[in-house]
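Troubleshooting: if your tokenizer reports a length mismatch, compare your output against this known-good record of 488 residues.
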Amino acid sequence: MPFVDIPSRGDYVSLWYRTNSVYGTVGSFDPSKPTIVMLHPLFLDSTWLQRHFDDPRLGLQYNIIAFDQRTMGRSRCRPSELHDCYVDAADLALAMQALFLPACHFLAFECISVNAVLRLTALWPELVLSLTLCNVPPPTELKWVFNAYDELLQLWCYAADLDAFEHAASEVVTFMTGETSNTDLQDALIAYWEAWTPPTKRLRIVELVNIMMNRTPLTQKELDCIRCPVLIIQNEQSDVAPLKHAENLRQQLINAQGDIRLFTIRGAKACMSIMPGSASLVNQAFSKFLATLPKARSDLVPPTVPVLERTKMALRTLGDLIGDPSYAQRDPRSILSFSCVSPEVARSQLENLRFYLRDIEHAYCPLGRDGRPMRKYSERQQSHWFHGDHRGMSHIGSRFLTVPLFSDPSLLAAQKNYKSQSPERAISGQLTANGNDLVTEDIAQDGRMRRTTFNTSSVEKQVVKGSMTKVVKTNNQGNPLPKVGSFL
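Known-good structure output:
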């Protein structure tokens, strides 16, 4: 499980990868088996693809390799305002050529991975045998998703203590999985984020969110370049990636080889790669799809066309696709030459990165002195009155009450077992869909400006209504404001 360093002028990237081979490298691949490249879901890395690596339907029949995207997991890169999905596609292409990998079958999960592999296929079609796209996202983010990520970004990056970080992380878990009762999954995800993307490494999350929130849709001309077999696997009840967008992409891929198959996972909500039932169905559909394709070998031989010359050809192709001939004159030794970020968006993203870089050395770290999480999320104390239960209701624990009535065990048991019949109150911490409208460029620009003017000192401040002069005068006279709960 080593790194692959990609030489790039004006940039730095070192991608971590893992394989299912005996020694963890591509050198021990079985040349008689085809190779699968897996791309991990959003906010996670290649270690979360273990359910696919361990499945004998895939692991015994194919060579498998998975790369960590440059801002996640163990991969390393220099923060850049020019990072977009075309840069991720170039990362994959150059890494595959550096490892002498042959044409591979691709299994991509969710937003950034799906967008990157579509662009890879358009520019380097000889590297792709087939595409399997899981949870195809909308062309641009939905408005409610855009606003939710905007708020979660502030909570995540400026968490002041462990409780604040766990609160932000639990919201992301609910947003990704649609579940609030799977404590084992919550513990594992939050512990992973505490170790790999704490507030001290917030630039990685900021750069990742920039890619997702500022992405542009693929044109029909770009989609016409995809000519390989395609399988789409979509969750039936995903609020983040509605089924209709997978159906739209299926109709737009008019040049794909054969019939494009759309496999729907009934009742599934999100993040199919980490949910056991959904992951097994993905492996089943994927293995059956690959069984219908001609079997390929995995001989590790150098590329027939030199990497530098092939990169120049990809830049020329990109210029033709987006209608900008100047791309053919860009430096082929720099991966950032593939960036399609406009100058205005690049300036905004640079200001965004600089803003979040301020005082990063003083950011909170949720790890203990041994470098491990200090506790499990399920082991936190929830005795305060604002912590909601499974019904969305909040109440104070009995050990804080001195009224004898609440010390009756029968009343406490009845309260605990009570099932509310009122559906009007949402479960605490649950993020729900709010429409299917897509983000426009004006909304995206407004979001970029708002994130660079965010004031961390304005978070969690008490709001006092009325004349401040009266409040100050009252406090100076020695009559403090009453505390909430002082009547207990």
